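From the pipeline queue, job 12 of 40. The input is one protein chain; the requested action is below.

Action: predict structure.
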Amino acid sequence: GLVTSVAAIEWFFYLPFRFNNYSYTVVNEYIYIAQGRFLRRSVIIPSDKILSVGSVQGPVMRKLGVTRLGVTCLLGVEHFGPFPSNLATNLRDRIMANSKWNDPAHG
């Protein structure tokens, strides 16, 4: 009854808007991530605060060929995506290339 209705509403209305309406910018100094169509949420993460970048890909996402990224910084983890898997790998590498942990002076 109620649980099925809530799950159906989330699956057909909330998830498409949440995952299909995002934007991002990766530059040397920061990453900007914005998500949502009606309720817009955005975050700017300075590149020198990024600790790691991980990827999440469950069985359904693997079947669809998409990957979700998680950027770990000093204040927590920001997840965004999904992206096509090859784009996610490229994006993860670009983000880590700009982080201070990729700098030999910090290693």
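Job complete. Strands lie at 22-26, 30-35, 41-46, 50-56, 66-73, 76-84.
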